[in-house]
Amino acid sequence: MISPVLPTYTRAPLSFKKGQGPWLETDAGEMYLDMGAGIGTCSLGHAHPKLVAVLEAQARRLWHTSNLYEIPNQEALAEKLVEHSFADTVFFTNSGTEAMELAVKMARKYFSAKGQSERVEIITFEGAFHGRSSAGIAASKGAKMIDGFGPILPGFVQVPFNDIEAAKAVIGPETAAILLEPIQGEGGIRPFGDASLKALREICDEQGLLLIMDEIQCGMGRTGKLFAHEWAGITPDIMTIAKGIGGGFPLGACVATEEAASGMVAGTHGSTYGGNPLACAVGCAVMNEITSDGFLIDVSRLAGHLRQGLEGLVAGHPDIFTFVRGSGLMLALGCKVPVMDVVNAGYDEKVMVVPASDNVVRLLPPLNMSTEDLDEAVWRLDRAAAALERKLDCENNKGLQA
After folding, report:
1. Separation CA 60–CA 105 (nearest Å)
2. Could you confirm whether domain 16-34+294-401 is CATH 3.90.1150.10?
3. Are 275 and 289 in contact (CB under 8 A)?
4. Is the pTM higher than 0.90?
5. In what order do the strands lie in the sheet with 238-241?
């Protein structure tokens, strides 16, 4: 018999009644250290007091009116995003998937409005994850996402990960844009690197294409800058944001330059819930924290501390871990054993990490964790790895006896 909740997830047998900072508490009172932060969404940890206060205050005043009317909180958050990014304008959504849908529409509408309606093709990269909508799975082309869902939407051309020459080679008269995550999240925390991002910006400029950055997972301070592309000293034309922008409250955004958004006029896009007073009140509070003096500097400091600890894990457990990669507080541990073995061993030690492709576990902790909690996380992962080593030794001994 099917469960009341559609069984599309393989869930861990865990549920939580309360969270505080990086810690989660089960009904039984057990405390788990959350190094996944809701897949990078709880950017300021669980139940951050400033976010709770803002949400409670807004909930007592006004929840929702729809975008038929002006929404002051929405305008305030848009102004903050414009002030702190390359963008001139913002459209708010409820999720990253919705933001990506608009990014695709915006790129195509840009050329259509200029009389070049044939330019609809978007170049993407192997290993990408751009959501689970019809356009998102067509852009990503992952077998698990597209199998069984009928004809895949046309208009997306995929090239190997970080292969700049391959991307350049497939540009044709129908090409509209290049789309990428500066650091692939679901793909295994794989950074493109500054040189590649600069090269892609140059190609787009030379060919008259739009550059779309998906910063849904790597944005909002996760790498030590507000947005990951800033490290390369370049800017996109369109960018999608979600996850960390709401600190756990459903919120996303598609931001763009005035030029890139020039085709999007009244009636070309809409959302009933997107950017409602509740979501944008929380988003403003998140932005205030992340852009406050010294916050991003502290993220980089914490990132260096965590990375040093993880490098020690790799050195101390070569039969379990193979490498550390990533940027800021968006890091991956390469695994020599099946990734879910590491995730489950972490559960046994009450530390939570997130699996990803390329047999890695992701560490996406709150951006405001203490060094003491980071050390605790590394210590628990060390214990998890030691338990896996004992299991491997036992299996090897059984094999020798057989």
Report:
1. 36
2. yes
3. no
4. yes
5. 89-93, 252-256, 238-241, 210-214, 175-180, 121-125, 156-159
Please identify, in words, the CATH class of the domain defined by 49-290. Answer: alpha beta
Rounded to whole angstroms, the Cα distance separating 274 from 201 reads 30
Q: Which tokens hold the place of 180?
A: 């990428």
Give CA–CA dist 289/273, Å, rounded: 24
Extents of the domains making up the chain? 16-34+294-401, 49-290
Query: What span, in angstroms and rounded, lies between the C-alpha atoms of 261 and 277?
Result: 24
For every one of its 402 residues, what pLDDT tens digit does the chain have, with 9 covering 90 and above? 999 999 999 999 999 999 999 999 999 999 999 999 999 999 999 999 999 999 999 999 999 999 999 999 999 999 999 999 999 999 999 999 999 999 999 999 999 999 999 999 999 999 999 999 999 999 998 888 889 998 999 999 999 999 999 999 999 999 999 999 999 999 999 999 999 999 999 999 999 999 999 999 999 999 999 999 999 999 999 999 999 999 999 999 999 999 999 999 999 999 999 999 999 999 999 999 999 999 999 999 999 999 999 999 999 999 999 999 999 999 999 999 999 999 999 999 999 999 999 999 999 999 999 999 999 999 999 999 999 999 988 877 776 665
Alpha-carbon span 345 to 343, nearest angstrom: 6
Q: Name residue, tokens 């508490």.
A: 25
What does the chain come to in residues? 402
- State how far the Cα of 89 lies from the Cα of 219, in Å rounded to an integer: 17
In whole angstroms, give the CA distance from residue 136 to residue 103: 11
For residue 102, which of 72, 69, 131 has the smallest C-alpha distance?
131
Q: Are 221 and 295 in contact (CB under 8 A)?
A: yes
Residue type, 278: L
Neighbours of 386 (CB within 10 A): 15
CA–CA–CA angle 309, 325, 380 (5° rounding): 35
Distances (CA, A) of 396 to 320, 322, 335, 389, 393: 15, 20, 18, 10, 5
How far is 215 from 212, CA to CA, in rounded Å? 9
Is-same-fold flag (16-34+294-401; 49-290)? no
**C-beta separation of 157 from 166 below 8 A:** no
